[in-house]
Design goal:
heterodimer, A: 412 residues, mainly alpha, B: 604 residues, alpha+beta, Beta-lactamase, 2 domains, five-stranded antiparallel sheet
Chain lengths: 412, 604
């Protein structure tokens, strides 16, 4: 049996985190508002877990070569599903695609993360030439940007940010020089610096200083002339276009960014979640108030506490101890996956493993970070923890792939 | 299996990359742990407190206000249930929707809705009061369609109700909701938002007694401020009801007085017991309905009352001061007697009235053009001869007049227990020098003062206080409204000789009861006891003269003293009838009381 050759340490960590998550969802269920709606989330999560385990077993039985061969097709299907959502969905947030004949609703955006990782890995590992200039990066960037933009149009800012983590992580692992990674991100840094200058948070012409620094860097690095020109212009334009760009954002998006800088701006509105989340976490203390004893939770002080804001519950009921244990488990999981990526014999597998690590890392850092106000509220769930069928399935499928990679490595 | 290496990759290179990646993953986790450590270990106390406060809401309960009753315990001001509609705190947009839905029912126009939203934005944690004192029909509709109006709450409160409405408005005053600025004042530190406080009259004067002590209850609320029920761990502190107070007012007499004044547009009347200083009835016209003011009057209605040319909020019995006209002659006669210018045996000043008095270059007219003929002080009061008093006043002189005026305290605030009493006024040389300039006034002014005209002024209450003093041969009591032992209101005797005060009572009886008396039309027929008093006309440079009458009953052993002023009422003899009618009402009430007492006794 192939299951015997699983990485059982990895598997144990995954199970521990999932069970911890179900416990927290059960706790979150016991609030008055949910009781009124009659929805019991933890039971649904358990049903999804069974489904996800089947998915895991199924995927772990598929050879990575088969995965590689089918990756473009899966990628294409995911793109079609995302595009279909945009066409069929009306105005506003439309993230669900119901599978005809069933009661199941899937979020294509979740599954697109896996297909994108696979497609990206397939492309890079099959390239004959080195990636040296910006031109060589066009296709890999497009592979990630296409689903990311479709998701951004839904609009789901958080999930598209995760694609950014995937792109970055995998480019790094593929061996792109660090200077290029920096240059790639520089227009975004330009945007934020220009924004801070624009909004008058700081007197210093921050963006200007950054731009000068960038020019010097490009010059000394002897970047290809064409690339140097592109990066310089890109930064110049974002710096100049920040103001119209900012104004094109929807007020609630602007507000989220602003509230991220100053939660006290709007203690009842967007800042509310952050403040209440901090209170829940802070009041938990070292050992927490005890399981099911969270008072903030009991009174529905934290919105979305089954999904995006489940971590404050850990903080409130299990205290710093619970937080530290979960974070260490997550870190251990990530390090274990990186190790798997390192020892994988085949560059496709290695890239896929590292892509999955980057994707999980993005989710964890943004989700946990936003509960203490160091990351903007983007609506990202916590892997394995948060309630949400599609996402749980995605995570387990990813773990299935990781197990397969582990099996193949140990079979050489 | 073919080995495809990533670009530039050797085994050691890959190890390096993995180690850097592991470190880059570890770093943010480490930072997050530090942040959580700060919140959960270093600052946990602060957040724990915050978390307690979050779910615990302290609700301050305004105490029920004390009742106000009249002298025989009849309720004048009470608390009755009223219902108001409140909206739970919620996002502004959904608040707008709820208001929109309610607008049909409550007749809220766009502007009022926006005003409410603005009010809500200032206090987003507390429920927003949308409508107060809604009628039963609206209440029924809202309760029936409760599910259609999510997030609203029907709150039952007590509201102040004035049983006799505008009849007693100036005495009781009214209450209004405490304002934000007032809440910050030290005087109101024990008050809570939503409390009604006295805005004028007795309600304001005895605010401290009537208010009581606020209570506190603790409730559990959810994140949006929705009430989940009482908080079990903390006992509520019930509010303590304010003290009930009993007034000296006799509401039946008050009703009779208000009825008498029905046709009077502007004026005042006040009755008190000269033996105790107890104010029995007090009316000022025009009046207002205190019930409207206490249950949320519209801004427009309020402005109309406030800027009405007849000033309905002015309590003319204590805030309207008028030249006393001939009613003042009593005081001149008293000062004359003190100075030995007139005597009880009639041997003092005798004046021949030929219709006036030539004084220097000016002729001072008597009100009776043909003249009164030979006048002693007695007839001069009965017939209100001006000539006699011109002469007497010129002999007394301004200095004596103002000295006695100040010494008697009748021209100062009486000290009644109502807010904002106006002071009367009696001028002296210094006052004339300051206001007219030295040399611009002459001894002629004192002649004018002698018949109660010019710069001299008194409120109806101060006037009746003077007559109470005269009618009781010099008893002095502070007029008051709170029923208490009268020893609290005794004032030291004045330095007037009792026989000089006594000599005034007889001519005052003559005014009403003698054939030549100016108020002979108000004589009580078929009564063993008589009314005494004095008419007066207060010259009004702005229009028709004001008419005054002040009297007491019974003339020989007074129980009640009454003063009345009717603006633009022309002559005192016309308003004397109001006083007479009030006395008749008083007699009826006393007789009924007696009958009841007899009935009580025979029952036992």
């Amino acid at each position: 049996m192939w299951i015997k050759r699983f990485d059982w340490i990895l598997m144990t960590v995954v199970f521990l985190l999932t069970l911890f998550g179900v416990l927290m969802i059960y706790s979150a269920d016991r609030i008055q508002t949910t009781r009124a709606t009659g929805v019991i989330y933890y039971q649904r999560q358990l049903i999804w877990l069974v489904l996800a385990l089947f998915g895991l077993l199924l995927v772990s039985a598929i050879n990575t070569r088969t995965l590689e061969a089918g990756s473009y097709m899966a990628y294409g299907l995911a793109i079609i599903a995302l595009a279909a959502l945009l066409v069929t969905g009306g105005k506003g947030v439309e993230r669900w695609l119901s599978i005809p004949g069933t009661n199941i609703n899937l979020q294509p955006a979740e599954l697109a993360k896996i297909t994108t990782i696979l497609a990206f890995a397939t492309y890079i590992s099959n390239r004959k030439k080195r990636i040296d200039t910006l031109k060589d990066l066009i296709i890999p960037i497009l592979i990630v940007m296409l689903p990311a933009s479709l998701i951004l149009l839904q609009p789901d800012l958080g999930t598209s940010i995760v694609f950014f983590f995937i792109l970055y992580g995998m480019l790094y692992w593929a061996g792109i020089p660090l200077i290029y990674l920096f240059l790639l991100i520089s227009p975004i840094i330009s945007f934020f610096l220009a924004l801070i200058t624009l909004l008058g948070q700081m007197r210093l012409p921050l963006w200007g200083l950054f731009f000068i620094f960038l020019c010097i860097l490009i010059f000394y690095n002897r970047t290809y002339l064409m690339d140097a020109v592109i990066f310089t212009l890109a930064n110049l334009f974002t710096g100049i276009l920040t103001s119209p760009l900012w104004n094109s954002l929807k007020p609630y998006q602007q507000n989220r960014i602003l509230v991220f800088f100053q939660p006290e701006r709007d203690p009842q509105g967007s800042g509310w979640q952050i403040i209440q989340s901090k209170v829940a976490i802070g009041s938990g203390g070292l050992f927490g108030k005890g399981y099911l004893e969270g008072t903030q939770k009991n009174l529905a002080f934290i919105p979305a506490q089954h999904t995006d804001f489940i971590f404050p519950l850990v903080g409130e009921e299990f205290g710093f101890l619970g937080v530290a244990i979960s974070l260490i488990l997550f870190l251990f999981l990530l390090e274990r996956i990186v190790e798997l990526a390192r020892i994988s014999v085949n560059s496709f597998s290695s890239l896929v493993a590292f892509g999955i690590a980057s994707f999980l890392f993005g989710h964890i850092i943004i989700n946990v970070g936003m509960t203490v106000g160091v990351m903007p509220i983007t609506g990202l769930p916590l892997p394995l923890f948060s309630y949400g069928g599609s996402f749980l399935l995605t995570c387990y499928l990813a773990v299935g792939i990781l197990q397969r990679i582990h099996i193949e490595r140990s079979s050489i | 299996m073919t080995y495809r290496s990533l670009q530039d990759e050797s085994i050691s290179n890959r190890l390096l990359k993995a180690q850097l990646a592991k470190f880059l993953f570890l770093l943010p986790f480490f930072i997050l742990l530090i942040i959580f450590f700060r919140y959960q270990v270093l600052h946990t106390t602060q957040y724990s407190l915050h978390s307690e406060e979050n779910r615990l809401r302290r609700i301050e309960l305004p105490p029920p206000r004390g009742l106000i009753t009249d002298r025989s315990g009849r309720v004048l001001a009470e608390n009755i249930p009223s219902y108001s509609i409140e909206c739970y705190p919620q996002p502004v947009d959904s608040m707008r929707i709820v208001l929109e839905k309610l607008s049909v029912l409550l007749n809220l126009d766009k502007g009022q809705q926006e005003q409410l939203i603005q009010k809500y934005l200032q206090r987003r944690q507390s429920p927003l009061r949308v409508a107060t004192d809604i009628d039963k029909k609206t209440l029924a509709v809202v309760e029936e369609h409760n599910s259609e109006f999510p997030g609203i709450l029907i709150r039952s409160d007590m509201k102040r109700s004035y049983v006799y409405g505008e009849q007693l408005a100036h005495v009781l005053g009214y209450v209004g909701e405490i304002t934000e600025t007032e809440l910050e004042q030290e005087r109101y530190q024990n008050y809570t938002i939503g409390t009604f406080i006295g805005r004028s009259g007795i309600e304001s004067q005895y605010e401290d007694l009537l208010h009581g002590v606020r209570g506190i209850k603790f409730i559990e609320v959810d994140a949006r401020g929705r009430e989940l029920g009482p908080f079990i761990d903390r006992q509520p502190i019930p509010p303590v009801r304010g003290q009930d107070i009993q007034l000296t007012i006799d509401i039946r007499l008050q009703e009779a007085m208000y009825q008498l004044m029905e046709t009077v547009e502007i004026g005042a009347m006040v009755a008190l017991n000269p033996n105790s200083g107890e104010v029995l009835a007090m009316v000022s016209k025009p009046s207002f309905d205190p019930n409207r003011l206490s249950s949320g009057i519209s801004g427009e209605e309020w402005r109309q009352l406030l800027f009405h040319p007849n000033k309905p909020f002015l309590n003319r019995a204590i805030q309207g001061t008028y030249p006393p006209g001939s009613t003042f002659k009593v005081f001149i006669a008293l000062v004359g007697a003190e100075l030995g210018l007139i005597k009880a045996d009639g041997t003092g000043q005798i004046t021949l009235c030929r219709g006036g008095l030539q004084y220097g270059s000016r002729f001072f007219k008597c009100w009776k053009p043909g003249g009164h003929g030979k006048m002693d002080y007695y007839q001069a009061i009965v017939q209100s001869c001006d000539t006699f008093f011109y002469q007497l006043g010129s002999k007394i002189g301004l200095e004596n007049l103002s000295r006695y005026g100040k010494m008697s305290h009748f021209f100062e605030k009486s000290g009644i227990d109502l807010p904002n009493e106006e002071s009367g006024m009696i001028p002296d040389e210094k006052w004339y020098d300051q206001n007219y300039g030295r040399g611009n006034w002459g001894p002629g002014n004192v002649l004018n003062l002698s018949i109660g005209q010019g710069e001299i002024s008194l409120s109806p209450l101060q006037l009746v206080n003077l007559y109470a003093f005269v009618s009781t041969d010099g008893k002095r009591l502070r007029p008051h409204l709170l029923l208490q032992d009268i020893d609290n209101y005794r004032l030291p005797d004045l330095d007037f000789k009792p026989q000089n005060i006594e000599l005034l009572r007889l001519p005052l009886t003559g005014v009403v009861n003698e054939e030549l008396g100016t108020a002979r039309g108000s004589k009580l027929y078929g009564q063993s006891r008589q009314l005494a008093g004095k008419t007066g006309t207060s010259q009004n440079p702005h229009g028709d003269d004001h008419a005054l009458f002040v009297g007491f009953f019974p003339a020989d052993k007074p129980e009640i003293a009454i003063a009345t002023v009717v603006e633009h009422g022309l002559h005192g003899s016309t308003v004397a009838r109001y006083v007479r009618d009030l006395v008749l009402a008083y007699i009826d009430l006393k007789e009924e009381e007696k009958r009841q007492e007899v009935a009580e006794l025979s029952k036992n």
